[in-house]
Amino acid sequence: MALHHSAPSCFMHWSVQRVTNNLFSVSATSDGLDYTHVGNYRSVEDANRAGRRFVSAKAHDQGHNTPERAEAKIHQQRHLASSAMEG
């Protein structure tokens, strides 16, 4: 029987601020306190698109770097190695 563990909640948010008439700055955070500068963009649409991409990539990375995934990967590698030695 498989045990299911709850994943930690994830807070991802990006902020777009107008710097000049034709320049928008994007920052993102995963904890609501520390922001990472994503970049500067010429339109608010491009800035929001970049914010969405950044948050999505970070969330994807966090999902793949859990202890359960690392343990499963080690188990899978051991299984493949033992299968290769048997064959």
Q: In words, what does this structure look like?
A:
The protein has one domain (13-86). It is built from two helices and three strands. The protein has helices spanning 44-64, 67-86, and strands spanning 13-20, 23-29, 35-41. It has a three-stranded antiparallel beta sheet with strand order 1-2-3, with helices on one face. The two termini are 29 Å apart. 8% of the residues are buried.
Q: Structurally, how many domains make up the residues? A: 1
Main sheet attributes: strand count, strand direction, barrel closure: 3 strands, antiparallel
Distance between the termini: 29 Å
Low-pLDDT windows of residues: none
The strand line-up of the biggest sheet is 1-2-3
Helix run count? 2
How many β-strand runs?
3
- How much helicity do the residues have? 40-55%
Which strand-content bin applies to the residues? 25-35%
How would you describe the shape? elongated
> Strand-and-helix sequence, N→C?
EEEHH
Given the helix and strand composition, which structural class is it?
A: alpha+beta
Q: What is the C-alpha radius of gyration, as a whole number of Å?
A: 20 Å
Q: Average pLDDT value?
A: 76
